[in-house]
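Priority: medium. Attachment 1 of 2:
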């Protein structure tokens, strides 16, 4: 585990402490190594009722954006063919950061410790005009796995956790006990904070901060071997953290860079939680976009 410093400052582990990763020095897939044929088959067997709930937001121009990110749609209402059937054609041009808007999966080069990303790969060394030459989101591929949602808002008896609520390992264990479900290695581990209630309603507040995982809770989950960590807020982690006020998104570094665990942000978990589903078959196809730092995604829970 990484150490919090008394001042609220925080330093990530040095290269020698974090590399090679548990998967070996040449590994580039990190937590995706957990997706074995057996786990995929077991996940498919969780689909019993034939129901699905979409657990990502719709991409629209009225969604919240972090920083200068944008999503501008321009309709291209095109030509009418001269043939007798008068076929018209419509398309759109979208100006956006396709990797980092909406419900999104972070790939490893999205974050660094200094110049290094996962497994101490030097980021300038894998940067090219066409994107990253290693560990772009295309290395993730189709995901079908067991998913578990931990309803921390429900545990605390609220719809939405307070903006500065830092989720602890105890909260996670209590939520699992309350929901009578356990975590298994290779699960997509998801957190319901209720923060998504602000999505499209109060976008300024949505991105101004959020409740989420603290460092100890993130490490507790990572020890259990997640396929990915997801939440219904913009960074999965609490932001800013009261216990680490001088650290910028430390869970991003711990998950993506130190352990090679993908983050799934801006989820929409209300319907799934309301349906009382704690475990399900989690299905998601990130874009096959070469060298991207992530991908907008449309995950679903099937059961
Ligand atoms: C940042 O990169 C700041 O955020 P995120 O990964 O949450 O989109």
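Attachment 2 of 2:
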């Amino acid at each position: 585990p990484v150490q919090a410093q008394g001042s609220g400052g925080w330093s990530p582990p040095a290269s020698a402490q974090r590399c090679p990763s548990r998967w070996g020095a040449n590994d580039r897939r990190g937590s995706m190594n957990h997706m074995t044929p057996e786990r995929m088959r077991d996940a498919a067997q969780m689909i019993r009722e034939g129901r699905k709930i979409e657990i990502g937001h719709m991409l629209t121009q009225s969604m919240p954006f972090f920083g200068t990110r944008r999503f501008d749609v321009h309709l291209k209402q095109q030509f009418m063919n001269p043939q007798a059937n008068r076929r018209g054609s419509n398309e759109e041009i979208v100006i956006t950061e396709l990797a980092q808007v909406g419900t999104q999966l972070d790939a490893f080069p999205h974050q660094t410790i200094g110049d290094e990303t996962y497994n101490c790969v030097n980021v300038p060394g894998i940067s090219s005009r066409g994107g990253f030459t290693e560990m772009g989101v295309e290395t993730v591929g189709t995901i079908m796995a067991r998913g578990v949602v931990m309803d921390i808002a429900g545990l605390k008896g609220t719809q939405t956790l307070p903006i500065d609520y830092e989720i602890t390992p105890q909260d996670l264990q209590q939520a699992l006990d309350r929901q009578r479900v356990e975590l298994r290695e290779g699960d997509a581990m998801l957190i319901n904070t209720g923060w998504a209630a602000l999505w499209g309603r109060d976008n300024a507040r949505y991105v101004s901060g959020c409740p989420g995982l603290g460092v100890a809770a993130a490490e507790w989950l990572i020890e259990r071997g997640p396929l990915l960590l997801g939440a219904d807020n913009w960074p999965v982690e609490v932001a800013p953290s009261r216990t680490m006020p001088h650290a910028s998104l430390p869970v991003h570094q711990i998950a993506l860079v130190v352990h090679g665990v993908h983050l799934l942000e801006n989820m929409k978990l209300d319907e799934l939680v309301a349906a009382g589903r704690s475990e399900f078959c989690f299905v998601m196809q990130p874009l096959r976009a070469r060298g991207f730092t992530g991908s907008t995604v449309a995950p679903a829970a099937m059961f």
